[in-house]
Amino acid sequence: MSTGEAPKRDDPTPPPEPEEENYQSLGLGLGLCLGTAFGAVFHNLAIGISVGLCLGLAIGTAIKKKDPPGPTPPSEGGAEG
């Protein structure tokens, strides 16, 4: 006999999001800070911010992140012991 309820299924976990492979956000932040500082020193804030953001983004995109050193994940199906 059926009770009319659907069988419960475990919700599948969403796939992990890929991690960023470069430093774009860090480059933008540092470029903004340095561009603002140089713009204030040279009395041209708009140009300083623009150039700082462009250079920060370009440098942050060019630098690739390295894989962190650490233990390797265990192989699947291997004997545990």
TrEMBL record:
Region (Disordered): 1-23
Domain Glycine zipper-like as annotated: residue spans: 24-66
Biased composition (Basic and acidic residues): 1-12
Key word Transport present: no
Keyword terms of this UniProt record: Membrane, Transmembrane, Transmembrane helix
Regions that span the bilayer: 26-59
Top-level taxon: Bacteria
InterPro entries reported for this sequence: Gly_zipper-like_dom
Protein name stated in the entry: Glycine zipper-like domain-containing protein
